[in-house]
């Protein structure tokens, strides 16, 4: 037997919390579980009830929800494996039969559902677990760190069934595996009409007129009130709640502009978007309507964007359109071969700097979305930082006008540096900006210091507020300097040294320090301040007034990073000059701290969780030696939890689609040979994949 323990927080919905307070119901030993649990999803009425229950009662926005401390024990018994979740020390909450699950039943939960990071969702049927309460909701566990999340994700999946095709009694290796991902951008809505006691039917007819919008509705029309409503969307895939937008107030035309990425999905059947009207205080939201999209025959690998009708089905009338939602959808469904099938292509990739591959793929083949896959492969092979430093040595060459061009453009170096900072710096970003930016967004801080946009009295008052908020945010950034990752430090140190060496005449202008900040602030902190919802710092795009506040703060901090006492020569920003002058010395100290590698690794007593994680990793690595290659490669572990064959399959699919869409007619020129050789190797991979698939047809 193998046993592993971990302390987590378990999510309890209001329904579950209420059920736990009730005395247990005695059941007869011969009583069987209700086999009709699954069939209830087949009827429209019951489907609506299940969705509403999952959406509001189970995963509400904090109304009555509870995260409770729990202990998880994973036990292996021969061919079986169970996960016991205990509330407190002795109360068994759930027992999951992990060996009955599939890979895709165990996956991280989207950040939009919970105010916590590192949440693992386990989706299972009633027959795959024992529960102290009767519920159909997934089990959500908040783990202490991203390393713990990836370790336990791999550990649990190692006992589950992988989606491997072609396994037989004679050959357990299999031919290939499938991987699916759904990318959704919920952009905006228009002409959305909520229930109105003065007549929904008349409103629907009126809203269907060409060019008619809520903003253009006549104020005297009682049937279509122009009062603002608060709307949000719940995103369901295969009847499972996967994501949720923020609540936006508007006149029936909300602007969400939120992006969702759902990887490791099961076989795709249907996408459902439920539009809700938020009611306050603490009232149950009203479902305005729904969008239903079949995914079974949805085009793979292509972006589909458009306006989709929001339909409301009444008890006695057919479905009526109550508005539209603009969605952008992309579905990936990739055939992944064993890693050995990609070995020749990988050897070609290793012959060059990975940043050069990114530049060639974008400039010559016009493929702009492979930098993430190439960066992941380089990280897994411990090459990315070294390749970034090599390209930095080339770019910082002492030519051009450094004041205007150094790290200002979108080059392969700056893009890959952003990839590296995004990969290694998520915790650092949270420590530097998380608390202050979330507090600003939650409080709806609206600051305006431009007299042309507001009156002079308010502008004068807001100058002091802007100075105060800049000081608070800078205090958090400065206070987190010791937490800067080592990868950042080595990159920033090399940049600072190269600029000082190649531009010796510019040192008096603080150019080496500005070069570090061009990456650290211009490429990292400033985008996170301007778009906190894209960097996991707040749920949903901030309000327009808050966006203006964030823009003013970003301008101020960028001036501080440039060691300027003025903010882009804007006279009305002169009120923050004192803050910039007072913080100048701290900025020098900050740049020195984040561009100096640590002299020695901190030695601390390993925690019990770390010891358990280390033991689990060691044990899993031993077990992986006996697994088929396709299953083994789908279980990446920290410090680089990267599925390399999957990243190679993404590159292969992109090159194949590009070759099928465009047949360039050109005269062979120097510089194309590496791309031609790489494309030929991936074409061999695609032929092998088609052969394996056809052999099972």
From TrEMBL:
Name listed for the protein in its UniProt record: Rho GTPase activation protein
Top-level taxon in the UniProt lineage: Eukaryota
């Amino acid at each position: 037997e193998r046993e592993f323990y971990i302390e987590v927080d378990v999510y309890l919905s209001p329904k579950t919390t209420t059920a736990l307070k009730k005395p247990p119901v005695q059941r007869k030993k011969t009583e069987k579980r209700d086999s009709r649990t699954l069939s209830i999803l087949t009827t429209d009425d019951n489907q609506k009830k299940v969705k509403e229950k999952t959406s509001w009662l189970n995963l509400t926005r904090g109304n009555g929800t509870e995260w409770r401390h729990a202990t998880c024990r994973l036990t292996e018994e021969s061919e079986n494996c169970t996960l016991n979740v205990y509330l407190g020390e002795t109360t068994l909450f759930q027992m999951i039969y992990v060996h009955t699950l599939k890979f895709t039943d165990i996956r991280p939960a989207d950040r939009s559902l919970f105010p916590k990071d590192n949440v693992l969702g386990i989706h299972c049927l009633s027959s795959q677990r024992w529960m102290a309460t009767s519920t159909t909701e997934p089990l959500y566990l908040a783990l202490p760190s991203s390393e713990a999340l990836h370790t336990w994700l791999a550990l649990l999946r190692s006992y589950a069934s992988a989606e491997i095709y072609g396994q037989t009694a004679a050959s357990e290796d299999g031919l290939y595996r499938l991987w699916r991902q759904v990318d959704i951008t919920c952009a905006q809505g228009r002409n959305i009409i909520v229930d109105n006691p003065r007549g929904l039917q008349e409103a629907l007819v009126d809203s269907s007129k060409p060019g008619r919008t809520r903003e253009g509705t006549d104020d005297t029309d009682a049937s279509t009130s122009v009062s603002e409503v608060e709307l949000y969307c719940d995103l369901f895939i295969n009847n499972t709640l996967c994501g949720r937008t923020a609540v936006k107030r508007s006149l029936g035309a909300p602007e969400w502009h939120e992006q969702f990425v759902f990887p490791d999905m099961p076989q795709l059947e249907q996408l459902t978007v439920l539009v809700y009207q938020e009611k306050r205080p603490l009232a149950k939201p009203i479902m305005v309507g729904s969008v239903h999209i079949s995914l079974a025959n949805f085009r793979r690998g292509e972006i589909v964007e458009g306006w989709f009708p929001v339909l409301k089905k009444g008890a006695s009338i057919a479905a009526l359109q109550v508005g539209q939602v603009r969605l952008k959808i992309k579905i990936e469904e990739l055939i992944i071969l064993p890693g050995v099938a990609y070995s020749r292509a990988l050897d070609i990739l290793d012959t060059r700097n990975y940043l050069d591959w990114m530049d060639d793929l974008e400039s010559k083949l016009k493929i702009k979305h492979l930098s993430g896959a190439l960066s992941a492969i380089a990280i897994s092979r411990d090459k990315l930082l070294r390749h970034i430093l090599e390209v930095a040595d080339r770019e910082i060459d002492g030519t051009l006008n450094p004041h205007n061009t150094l790290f200002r453009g979108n080059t392969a170096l700056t893009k890959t540096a952003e990839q590296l900072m995004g990969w290694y710096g998520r915790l650092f970003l949270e420590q530097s900006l998380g608390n202050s930016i979330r507090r600003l967004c939650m409080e709806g801080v609206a600051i305006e210091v431009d007299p042309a946009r507001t009156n002079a009295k308010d502008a004068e008052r807001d100058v002091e507020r802007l100075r105060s908020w800049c000081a608070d945010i800078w205090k958090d950034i400065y206070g987190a300097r010791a937490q800067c990752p080592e990868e950042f430090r080595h990159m920033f140190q090399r940049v600072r040294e190269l600029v000082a060496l190649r531009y010796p005449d510019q040192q008096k202008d603080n150019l080496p320090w500005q070069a570090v900040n061009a990456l650290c602030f211009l490429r990292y902190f400033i985008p996170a301040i301007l778009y906190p919802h894209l960097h996991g710092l707040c749920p949903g795009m901030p309000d327009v007034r808050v966006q203006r506040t964030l823009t003013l703060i970003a301008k101020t901090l960028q001036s501080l990073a440039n060691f300027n006492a003025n903010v882009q020569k804007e006279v009305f920003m002169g009120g923050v000059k004192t803050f910039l002058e007072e913080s100048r010395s701290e900025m020098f100290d900050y740049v020195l701290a984040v561009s100096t590698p640590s002299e020695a690794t901190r030695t601390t007593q390993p925690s019990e969780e770390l010891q358990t994680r280390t033991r689990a990793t060691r044990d899993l690595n031993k077990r992986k030696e006996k697994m088929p290659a396709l299953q083994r490669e789908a279980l990446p572990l920290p410090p680089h939890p990267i599925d390399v064959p999957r990243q190679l399959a993404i590159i292969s699919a992109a090159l194949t689609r590009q070759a099928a869409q465009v047949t360039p007619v050109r005269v062979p020129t120097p510089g194309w040979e590496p791309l031609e050789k790489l494309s030929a190797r991936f074409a061999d991979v695609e032929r092998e994949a088609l052969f394996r698939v056809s052999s099972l047809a």
